[in-house]
Hints:
- With 672 residues, the chain is mainly beta.
- Helices cover 6% and strands 56% of the residues.
- The chain has one domain: Maltoporin, Chain A (Beta Barrel).
- The strands form seven sheets. The chain has a 22-stranded antiparallel barrel. The chain has a five-stranded mixed β-sheet with strand order 1-6-7-4-5. The protein has a two-stranded antiparallel sheet with strand order 2-3.
- Belongs to the TonB-dependent receptor family.
Amino acid sequence: MGKLKLSKNFCVYVIFFLLMKQILFASEPEDLGEIKVVESGKEESELTEKTRTSFVTVIRKEELDRGFNDLPEVLEKSVGVRIKKSGGLGDFSTISIRGSSSEQVLIYLDGILLNESQGGGVNLGDIPFSNIDSIEIYRGSSPVVFGASGIGGIVNIKTKFPEKKRNIFARFQYGSFETYRTDIFLSHKPGKYDYFIGIDYTGSDNDFKFEDDNGTKYNKRDDETKRRKNNDFKSLSFLAKFGYDFNSLTRIKLTNNLFRNYKGIPGISNYQSENADLRILENLSSMDFTKEALWVDQMNFYLNLYGSYKKQEFDDRLGEIGVGRQDNKNVTRSYGANLNLKYFLDEINTLNLLISLKNETYHPFDKFRKIQSGKSSRLTFSSGIEDEISLFNDHFIVVPSFRKDFIKNRFRGENGGLIFAKSEDDESSEEYSTWQTGFKVPVTEWFSLRANLGRYYRVPNFFELFGDRGGIIGNSKLVAEEGWNRDIGFRLAGDISNYIKSLSLEAVYFENKTENLILFIQNSQRTSRPENISKSENRGWELTGSVLLIEHLRLSTNYTRQDPKDKGKIPSRRNKILPGRAKSEFNSEVELFNSFGKIFYSYNKVEKIYLDPANLLPIRIREIHNIGISAFFEKKFSATFEVKNISDNRVEDTTGYPLPGRSYFLTMMWNF
């Protein structure tokens, strides 16, 4: 990589912050007053919300634990989010935010980035759901404390943590298609130390019915109803946490997240496979060390060390799915560190500094090939700075930030597994800069204005750089996709009266432009090559609202309207809606509750989605209704029954991969 030197722009940016502070605010008093020590997750969220300029959706534990859910189902209820699913529970699912691709959205689990360098978006179906405590969805801009930034945004998933008193939680769920989930959690914080242990076992046959057109879309005479075959799913996960408080300012936490998944691969609907399957073993380990008042009272120190291991074994020895027979084992290893310093310069300036290092290696293996060699690796070094500037007694907040990334890719020799087209060593090194600036104007305690502007990028993955299976010729000259995002909006939140509480209303207008989009171009009958030839634009707006009426009726709704267009050079695609992106989407939820139980209903409507770049394969308007009822027996036991997709609307997000119709689920939960 050569010498890792901070660029001239980065140094100028730091000096700019310090000079502006001295020039504009030299007369301001330097007394910091009381330094608040944040002790709980709730207080941390409230403190962050005070200075945060980003538009963020926070999904809390209460919403996650309501009935039978999985991660894709929970995320798709959020404003600006579109989930692309290929089947039922555990099937491949990816996320799009404000019309982005799945690779342009970064997924974090307890501070560890799940996006991998070999390519493809994160499969949301692989992430254990029962362990999740809360989810933050950053639409567009995001804080610099994350080790990377995405063109589309960031999804930050936080797992459950120990509670102060001893708690044992158990849950059993059962439903349609022989679906089941069993989990148990134990946590305690008796003193300076605390611990959390969680085990989850989930499975489903996923043998739902679907309408098969036998590959003749316009001939209805041969259509028939079939069941999905070889679509079963099993998942076992184990989460362990241990923490120790040295004192009120110093803490260490160890986390290990292990999960193993098995998935039958059914193939397309009119030619289902009988035997293909995928097995995944993944382990994530991390250590978090926090020290407040490190050298001076105004400085907080945070260090995160992590390592991950992921093994994927794909077995299609009969050649039912891909091109020819396959029996592959792909192993990905990564390790890294994130160091964050937060320095309270004075009453109006809070400086965040980030240094991040990550190394990732990818080693594929093909049991049908005699020659097995080579690894692909990516080394990333990042540094960033962010300044939270609060002016006029916190009535105007501006948060500029800058990040510099140095990236080195290396491909060594001929690879098996992913049968790379190249046999020689290859290297590429790049450096990229991203910046963003956010503004917040708290007009009153309950009303605020926000705006954000930023530049982001996505680095080409190994698949694009080095090729795959001989049919794809790699292109080591590719440059990163670049995105320009901006948004502006307002947020209203507060209590109106004793009968109207927790009123929240948010309206946002956004514009996104992406250049150097990578597309695969056919250059012969048998091969294609990725090129930076496309670009896209998206404009739209988001509305979100919720309210609590008479302390027993909760209403929430959100609406997204956008125009995601392909602005590339290919005539058949130009000015067409990007495939898989919804023109509009509407979600609403109603919940009537008291101390004895609750009744809840949700509705989702999606309009104008195309499955192909030329917009020749539209999806009809999709409407999904869900309903459920819960009974509470004091605070120790509850039972929930729900019906999903009441109208049995059978649809698909990807051609040939149907989604489940009507289904029923029962949930029982115990607290000891």
